[in-house]
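Backbone-to-sequence.
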């Protein structure tokens, strides 16, 4: 689902940051974004590569990456932690996780509580019979 969400972000004119929690998985995502679509690739680069500020999609491992401070949307994957204060400066922050992984679900619940306690609107989407369905929304 991440490539679809990234494509939609770019279509809105948003620059995106994808923050991962595992260097090997971030490298695999980098490769997938170059080769995964029949109609082209999603323009992106790694934060430790030259000119990260020029990348429409920036792949990072930590907050504060060069070129990451001007991104409208932040995608957190592979256990990258949520920070409610950082989310306040973004148009969107999305936590993408495996709903079949109990540890990931617990982390998502903790992030939900932190987001709502900080006054953010939180929305939970899940796959249901092959479709994405909004399961819950909490005001901001």
């Amino acid at each position: 689902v991440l490539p679809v969400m990234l494509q939609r972000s770019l279509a809105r004119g948003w620059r995106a940051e994808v923050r991962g929690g595992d260097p090997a998985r971030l490298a695999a995502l980098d490769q997938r974004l170059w080769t995964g679509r029949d109609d082209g690739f999603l323009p992106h680069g790694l934060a430790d590569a030259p000119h990260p500020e020029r990348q429409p999609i920036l792949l990072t491992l930590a907050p504060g990456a060069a070129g990451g401070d001007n991104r409208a949307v932040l995608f957190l994957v592979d256990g990258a932690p949520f920070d409610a204060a950082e989310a306040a400066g973004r148009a969107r922050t999305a936590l993408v996780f495996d709903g079949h992984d109990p540890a990931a679900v617990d982390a998502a619940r903790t992030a939900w509580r932190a987001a709502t306690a900080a006054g953010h609107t939180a929305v939970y989407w899940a796959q249901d019979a092959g479709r994405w369905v909004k399961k819950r929304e909490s005001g901001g």
